[in-house]
Amino acid sequence: xxxxxxxxxxxxxxxxxxxxxxxxxxxxxxxxxxxxxxxxxxxxxxxxxxxxxxxxxxxxxxxxxxxxxxxxxxxxxxxxxxxxxxxxxxxxxxxxxxxxxxxxxxxx
Length: 108
Description:
Layout: H1 2-16, E1 37-44, H2 50-62, E2 69-71, E3 81-86, H3 88-100
Parallel strand pairs: 1-2
Antiparallel strand pairs: 1-3
């Protein structure tokens, strides 16, 4: 059972590293069709939370270039940043999505 849990955890951590650092073809956002800004994205290591997985599912079609960081997996490495892109409209769409999906139980 422990071996199966370890394999599952490794698969989840590896899957988390798929976040978008660079567009497939050029610097145009595939969702908003506008020029993106080249920037340094932070690498974030560790197991994503359930909220992070929910956001990743939403991001695919709505704001794929809206984060200033990339999930880099569970194995921490010396590298802290990676070249990537941000789409201003993706950033706004992500912020709107985060406000709409904020944990209501955490509100005062």
